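Repro:
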Amino acid sequence: MKVLLVVIIVVVVLAMWLVGIYNNLVRLRNNRENAFANIDVQLRQRYDLIPQLVASVKGYAAHEKEVFTKVTEARTAAMNAQSIGEKIDADNALTSALSGLKISLEAYPELKANENFLQLQNEIADIENKLSSVRRYFNSATREYNNAVQTFPSNIFAGMFGFHREPMYEISQEERPTLEKAPEIKF
């Protein structure tokens, strides 16, 4: 009788331990998905603001149409992205297009002084800072999830339940050389 009771207790404790591992993996996966949803919120705000910026700037720099076209196309591609990977790639392309726009704007001192542009520029800077913050949070949530999926003993059960390593939010290999180069500062 005592042996049966001990076996039952061991089985119950083992079952509770497995349930705990599974629930932790689910919680971490959901936390990662929530972190990416926060990125989506900031990206949506960014996408909604870009047409306002482009419209404001077009009046001052009509001949820079190519830059505005790239920004608009990158925005559209970013809005149509479906998977997390596609959204990351599209966001990187939009970030690159916006950088091109910023460089073009440096040639127009009168545009920089325009009150509407200054307001939009400040809003974009605010959104970019928020995006940077939520991307860091997403990568932190992804790291925590990946650690749980890859460390013992939860790695044994992660594979059985379909949990697998997920990618971080990183810059693309094409953009890396440009971003690793120190910016040129001109006065």
